[in-house]
Specification:
globular, 0% strand, Four Helix Bundle (Hemerythrin (Met), subunit A), mainly alpha
């Protein structure tokens, strides 16, 4: 297994610790959760950078990277809902988009194709990660502070846009043969 794929696996392995730290109440746990999330988010950047730089892009990497991102982001967001920092309906919208895109990827795989993350999907993930970081740092509900509210509206818009973008760019997969 190459280094970028190992970094994606490390990202997945960070999730249980992140969830535990976000669940526990002491303030130091929130800061530790932030450190774990920042590290895991950094591995997302690093694995893509290394894969492109050294041209070691694999089908497994195209699969595991977005899955690791989704697991990390959705786990953190679910814990933010649990903490009362994020409305559940936003996470449901994001999960619906992720499941729809994964369904499209499944159709692609049955046709011998792999759909890698596109620019809109990468921007979506980066925006969601930034949103999580802001909520962990400021510990202010997303609907009660202008910065978190603006970021929440942004992630809703970019999430919907990137989902529509994936389907438009891959609509031929959905056409009956």
């Amino acid at each position: 297994m190459n280094l970028p794929n190992k970094l994606s696996i490390i990202r997945v392995c960070c999730i249980p610790l992140l969830v535990l730290l976000m669940y526990l109440q002491p303030a130091w746990c929130r800061w530790a959760a932030l450190a774990v999330f920042l590290f895991a988010s950094w591995t997302d950047y690093l694995d893509g950078h290394i894969a492109r730089k050294h041209q070691i892009i694999t089908d497994f990497g195209k699969f595991i990277d977005p899955v690791a991102d989704k697991l990390l982001v959705l786990s953190a967001m679910i814990m933010l809902v649990h903490a009362g920092l994020m409305p559940a309906w936003v996470v449901i919208l994001i999960m619906a988009r992720e499941l729809a895109v994964d369904g499209l990827r499944l159709i692609a795989v049955t046709n011998g194709k792999v759909i890698a993350a596109g620019p809109a999907g990468k921007l979506k993930t980066a925006s969601q990660m930034l949103f999580i970081i802001v909520l962990l740092v400021f510990n202010i509900p997303a609907v009660s502070h202008w910065l978190t509210l603006i970021l929440m509206i942004w992630i809703i818009l970019i999430t919907v846009y990137s989902g529509v973008d994936y389907f438009l760019k891959n609509r031929a997969l959905l056409a009956e043969k």
